[in-house]
Write a structure and sequence with these properties.
The complex is a heterotrimer. Helix content of chain A is about 75%, strand content about 0%. By secondary structure, chain A is mostly helical. In chain A, helix 4 packs parallel to helix 6 and helix 5 runs antiparallel to helix 11. In chain B, about 40% of the residues are buried. The chains are: A mainly alpha, B alpha/beta, C alpha/beta.
Chain lengths: ~325, ~270, ~280
């Protein structure tokens, strides 16, 4: 077990180094640390930080949702955050807001949508797992329709803006925003980690957890709040980056087991390595163009997911 | 002998609709109480009320003298372990990890398990004869093995009372006897109080010291197996003709069914 | 014959004659044209086809006269019913993005001309062909001559500037994600004609997103913001992390006052855009 973790940590460090050294602009190590290229180095570091923050946050949210909803297909955008963020962004662009306001519009959109989904699915003060999934899907479909409507009736500028939201982007335009998102995600992930024990209990059954002394309804509410906050923060800055929140939890479980005390921190390491490697690959291969990160994670992630699925069926 | 759990005239159910009406009973140390009765009679509901999964609408339940409704789930979990009917575990935890979860009521949120917890978990494994399964994954076990592991988890809680909701209805006869023999031994040797909901009247008759016959949310009959398992009681509740004879080996009452006596209403 | 039979026969004959008169002597003998894109609308107006245009898209806003025309739907979703009701003789539209609509209209046996120029030469060809189709042959030649003249004007200014003093230009089409133009776009051609060097000319496609570090490394002398919809405060660009070191930012040469429509629409106004570009890239002439 310890060997596995050390190996993963080594891959992570390698991925970080790769993320700093390889980019759209071809610079060797000495050139990079030269004062003249200081700004590029800073940009790369910021991008690495965002990649780590975004991927860790998404994978932890995926883990939590898969445990609470006891559904292996659960992923962070299930509760409507992605379409809510997209709607917020599209509305802001359509109304002519400056680019500065778009992350905030996306954030508010994401949070409001999750609240709406939660409100629709409430059954007498309890959170029904089935109705939560159902209302999440319905709200997502409805909002996507509204987004399409706005896109088709507005000028092409929104088409450009929407590709940010649809396929994700790890560029950092505002260090203050990066700091805020890092803070929110770090606190959120840490708070979630504190509920590892509860998550273990809930993942073997809500009733079982209740009889082990876990206040299941309260824990579900807190965790869903944390998941919404983390996902909204990430999506408001990066757009939708798919697959990470869905497959990294599964891969990590295969490697390290379902105990959340290990699962949560190891998934952060694994997802960060994954994201950084995808990003370096994308940037170096298509330089100076940029392939949206969500495209790469999907292209790389889908076959991995299929292989995993086949393996688990064989068992 | 101390009363561990006292149930006083409770009414309880779901959505404020009472399923259980005016039920009173007492559980003492080393009791082995069976709850039987026709479908829909409220057996599972009663068990849930007694384990604080549900709060009674009327009446009071006291655990060691304290009002159950005022206790937190954690405090209850230190005294009462509950084994529900079906435990579907989708994640491949190892047996060891599952049994260690039984220690959760005794640990604070961020506290990792310590030496004491490990030794208690090991003891639970040995009591249920599952030590050799320790490193196996829960989803690889047979139904009987899994049930024993779940019981081990419950034992790791170090409870005073063990509640089980039809723990053997999906097991074959061999595993049924295995599980109930285990429970009987725990009751005998470790003074563990057991409350068990059973469908099978004969299992109740063989193993339980006392039986409650529940119908329509009320106690129809309460007492020893010989007192409760009479053909009159069974026939009037289950609406089928039976013959009650003694098991030649154990001399406990055995309910024999008589096929063909219930006539379907013909058009 | 009875009276009522006579009256019925007269009515029948009159109806037949009336319906014939409509087709023999049509209400107006002018061509009826619908334009589905702002660029093609501008071309049509420049050829003097104001009266012939019976319908335009929602976003056709130049020249002013275009705003008064009947709307037939959005750029990506033109209303087929509306188009049919206007009985067009010719529909002019642009390529890729309107492809599904074009397919649908072709099925209905309508006359369609697709104008999708990727270079100035192709634009001229388009204008010629539209001119021939609409009987404005002379006018199209005149328009092309006018445009060619203005291009030559800029060219003569540019040729005086030695290669070593050519300015590096970055054109920003959108901010998030950061989008610019590549070799496949005629905007790239405009920049070259204006005497500038597009720092992302090595991108083969027309448009592409680009990471900030590319801009920082290639250090453009001049940045042009051309967001559609005219929302482009210079502030949000120059405050980006690390951009204060870019030559264009240091020398306050970030411009957002070239009308993006003139730059982005392949139509008669590109020569104005070219002129503007040239003046921005070389403010001292």
């Amino acid at each position: 077990m310890k060997r596995k973790i050390i190996l993963l940590a080594a891959i992570f460090i390698l991925a970080v180094i790769l993320g700093i050294l390889k980019g759209s602009v071809n610079l060797n190590f000495l050139e990079l640390i030269n004062r003249a290229n200081r700004q590029i180095l800073h940009l790369r570091l910021a991008r690495v930080v965002l990649a780590i923050v975004a991927s860790s946050g998404l994978s932890v949210c995926g883990i939590v949702l898969q445990a609470i909803l006891r559904n292996p297909l659960a992923e962070p955008y299930l509760l409507g955050t992605s379409s809510g963020a997209g709607l917020g962004a599209v509305i802001a662009i359509t109304l002519g807001a400056a680019s500065f306001y778009i992350p905030f519009a996306a954030f508010i959109g994401a949070i409001s949508t999750t609240l709406l989904v939660y409100y629709i699915s409430r059954e007498r003060g309890k959170i029904g797992v089935q109705s939560l999934i159902l209302s999440g899907v319905i709200v997502s479909i409805a909002f996507s329709a509204v987004i399409l409507f706005l896109l088709s009736t507005s000028e092409r500028q929104t088409l450009h803006g929407i590709s940010w939201w649809l396929w994700g982007n790890l560029e950092v335009f505002d260090y203050k925003l990066l700091f805020a998102v890092t803070l929110i995600v770090a606190l959120g992930v840490f708070a979630t980690y504190m509920f590892s024990q509860d998550l273990n209990a809930i993942s073997i059954g809500e009733e079982e957890a209740l009889h082990l002394g876990v206040n299941v309804e309260l824990v579900k509410k807190i965790l869903l709040f944390l998941v919404s906050l983390i996902t909204a923060a990430i999506i408001s800055v990066c757009g939708v980056i798919g697959f990470v929140g869905l497959i990294i939890p599964h891969i990590t479980r295969l490697v390290i087991g379902p105990n959340h005390r290990l699962l949560i921190p190891v998934s952060c390491i694994l997802s960060s390595a994954f994201m950084l490697l995808c990003d370096s690959f994308a940037r170096a291969l298509f330089s100076p163009s940029e392939i949206p990160i969500g495209v790469i994670t999907a292209i790389v992630g889908a076959p991995i997911f299929i292989i995993l699925l086949k393996k688990s069926e064989v068992k | 002998m101390d009363t561990l759990l006292k149930v006083e005239s409770i009414c309880g159910g779901y959505d404020n609709k009472p399923v259980i009406n005016n039920v009173s009973l007492e559980i003492k140390q080393a009791d082995f109480l069976g709850i039987i009765g026709p479908n829909g009679g409220g057996k599972s509901t009663l068990l849930r009320l007694m384990s604080r999964a549900l709060i009674p609408i009327k009446g009071k339940i006291s655990l060691e003298g304290r009002d159950l409704a005022r206790l937190s789930h954690k405090e209850v979990a230190k005294k009462i372990a509950f084994i529900p009917q079906l435990t579907l575990i989708n994640f491949s935890f190892t047996v060891w990890e599952i049994v260690l979860m039984g220690r959760i009521p005794h640990l604070s949120r961020m506290q990792p398990e310590g030496k004491i917890d490990f030794s208690i978990a090991e003891r639970a494994l040995s009591l249920t004869d599952t030590l050799n399964l320790r490193n196996r994954r829960i989803d690889e076990l047979s139904a009987g093995e899994r049930q024993r592991v779940i019981i081990a988890k419950a034992l790791a809680q170090e409870p005073l009372l063990l509640f089980l909701d039809e723990p053997t209805s999906h097991l074959d006869i061999g595993h049924q006897v295995q599980i109930l023999d285990l429970l009987a031994e725990l009751n005998r040797k470790n003074n563990l109080s057991i409350v068990i909901v059973l469908h099978d009247l004969n299992l109740a008759g063989e193993y339980c010291k006392n039986i409650i016959l529940l119908d329509n949310g009320e106690i129809f009959k309460q007492g020893s197996p010989e007192q409760v398992l009479t053909y009159q009681n069974i026939e009037s509740l289950y609406k089928t003709i039976v013959v009650v004879k003694d098991n030649p080996v154990t001399l406990k009452p055995h309910v024999l069914l008589v096929p063909g006596n219930i006539k379907c209403k013909q058009e | 014959m009875q009276i009522k039979h006579k009256i019925a026969a007269i009515i029948l004959v009159l109806t037949v004659c009336f319906s014939f008169t409509n087709s023999i002597f049509p209400q107006d003998s002018k061509l009826r044209i619908i334009s589905l894109a702002p660029a093609t609308t501008e071309i049509l107006f420049a050829l003097g086809l104001d009266c012939e245009i019976v319908g335009v898209s929602e976003f056709c806003n130049y020249p002013d006269r275009a705003k008064a025309k009947q709307r037939i739907g959005t750029f990506s979703q033109p209303n087929i019913e509306k188009i049919l009701s206007l009985k067009p003789d010719l529909i002019v539209c642009t390529g890729l993005e309107q492809a599904p609509v074009i397919a649908k209209l072709r099925q209905l046996n309508l006359n369609i001309f697709v104008s999708d120029p990727k270079s100035i030469n192709e634009l001229f060809t388009s204008i010629r062909e539209i001119g021939i189709l609409t009987g404005k042959d002379k006018e199209s030649k005149a328009l092309i001559d006018k445009m060619t003249y203005r291009i030559k004007e800029v060219n003569s200014r540019v040729s005086k500037i030695p290669q070593s003093e050519r300015q590096k230009v970055f054109i920003e089409i959108w901010h998030s994600p950061l989008t610019t133009v590549g070799a496949g776009s005629f905007i790239n051609e405009l920049i070259t004609l204006a005497g500038g060097i597009n720092i992302t000319a090595d991108i083969k496609s027309a448009y592409s997103t680009v990471p900030q570090e590319v801009v920082l490394k290639r250090d453009p002398d001049c940045i042009i913001l051309a967001y559609m919809g005219n929302l482009s405060p210079v502030e949000q660009v120059i405050t980006r992390p690390g951009w204060h070191n870019v030559a264009a930012v240091k020398n306050k040469r970030v411009y957002n006052d070239i009308d993006p429509d003139s730059l982005l629409r392949p139509g008669p106004r590109i020569v104005e855009a070219l002129d503007e570009l040239n003046k921005k890239i070389y403010p001292d002439g």
